[in-house]
Amino acid sequence: MNFLAHAYLSFNDPSLIVGNMIADFVKGKQILQYDDAIQQGIRLHRSIDTFTDQHPATAAAKAFFRPTCGLYGAVFMDIVYDHYLANDPQHFTPQSLETFSARVYQVLTGNMAILPDRFRQVFHYMQQHDWLYNYRTRQGILSSFNGIVRRAKFITVPATVPYAVFEEHYAALETCYTTFFPDLQAHARHFIG
Question: Which InterPro entries does this chain map to (predicted)?
Fold first, then answer.
């Protein structure tokens, strides 16, 4: 999953939000630098990623991207899942997504001193361009895909290629999301007890 889902599956707990959002930037024993509640958020993030990667609906969704994007299809799929979450009326309205995004940015800003340096750089752009809210829009998805292509060392296709897959298979990918996300939400709730 991508940033929006990780934030959402922190269930409004500030420590879980911080840990869940920074987890990809915390390597090995660096986790021990954080208090127990943030460590729990880091572990939650990793559990979410493992569950997502092993879910049959995710495998089906990634198959749409594989012919043109290879293994990077998984990265694009994470962003696509955030798009469907952002538009899922069971979880967000445009107004509640805007409020939620602002709250996550506020929590992260309040913990700036403990954020990993690399995440601080990412967070600057996340907040400046309101990534969490803009996953809702198709333009936001294309912008996210462009960012991946810019940063990825081994991807050889322009962002328009995975975006075309997203558009062509929009309904089928949404079905994958609706099959998968309730299972993920139950998994995350169980993980934190």
Answer: ACP_PD (IPR007431)
